[in-house]
Amino acid sequence: MNHEGMEGSVIVITGGGSGMGAAMAKDFAERGAGIAILDLDEARGSAVADSITDANGKAVYKKVDVTDKQVVLTAADEVEQELGAITSWINSAGVSKMVPFLKSSEELWDLTINVNLKATFLCCQVAIEKMLKHGGGTILNMSSLSGKKASAWQTVYCASKFGVQGLTQSIAKEFADRNIRVNSICPGIVYTEMWEKLKYEYAQKKSIDPEEVMPYFKKNIPMHRLVDLQDVINAAVFLLTDNSAYLTGQSINLTGGEWMD
């Protein structure tokens, strides 16, 4: 494993208690980074932090509602006191639900936009305020193939992730000459706990058996496999280190060839 480029870095990961966030946290800690997990789920967030410290890594957990800027700011201050200057920030907290458009409630809209888009906006503000004081840094927004490609029954989710793309590009442009790089990853189907629930909703949408959902996806992906967590980690390492020093405002489509724009 290539461990270069992460020694001494301090990486904040929202939604670090599960899924892609947790996978990145554990991997980056092995590469020598100090990890701060910001998650509303105390049991899961602290479990990931504990698993890192048990393996002699550096990690702290903060119970954070990412839609509340003051809470995020307080957590960021504590992280810097405990681990040092924040060098990278990953916005990985997210929610997703599949619902027909006319059955999509205002509550679903508010929840999805707040967690997926508003929180990314707020966290980017906090991260950039910190990074400007320390001479730069990198931000990684976890978007989705749904931030590029519209799909029925996912209107609200697509709107939130298309928004993340616009946010990422605008911030990247504004701070490109301040040594702050902002990029996103747009994965296709990553089989995490989120999809364990979503596959039942997708099965309803397509009128197929839930157990047929993943094979159906694989058939339609040119590489005929889903996104592996290691694929996400590898792309994130590239975007957070100097290997991508000339890249900002870009999105990596982790889609096995399904989407190329």
How would you characterize the overall build of this protein?
- This protein has helices spanning 19-30, 42-54, 69-83, 106-134, 155-175, 193-206, 213-220, 229-240, and strands at residues 10-14, 34-39, 58-63, 88-91, 137-142, 180-187, 251-254.
- It is an alpha/beta fold and 261 residues long.
- It has one domain (8-188, 226-252): Rossmann fold.
- It has a seven-stranded parallel beta sheet, sandwiched between helices.
- Helix 1 links the parallel strand 1 (10-14) and strand 2.
- The chain is globular, with a radius of gyration of 18 Å.
- The two termini are 30 Å apart.
- The model has no long low-confidence stretch (mean pLDDT 96).
Indicate the low-confidence ranges by residue numbers: none
CATH superfamily: NAD(P)-binding Rossmann-like Domain
- Residue share in helix: 40-55%
H/E series, N to C?
EHEHEHEHEHEHHHE
* Major β-sheet strand ordering: 3-2-1-4-5-6-7
Radius of gyration: 18 Å
Which CATH first-tier class would you pick?
A: Alpha Beta
User: What gap, in angstroms, lies between the N and C termini?
Assistant: 30 Å
Structural class: alpha/beta
Please give the number of β-strands. 7
Integer count of domains = 1
Strand content: 5-15%
Care to give the gist of this entry?
The protein is of the alpha/beta class and 261 residues long.
Tell me the layout of helices and strands.
Blueprint: E1 10-14, H1 19-30, E2 34-39, H2 42-54, E3 58-63, H3 69-83, E4 88-91, H4 106-134, E5 137-142, H5 155-175, E6 180-187, H6 193-206, H7 213-220, H8 229-240, E7 251-254
Helix pairs in contact: 1-2, 1-8, 3-4, 4-5
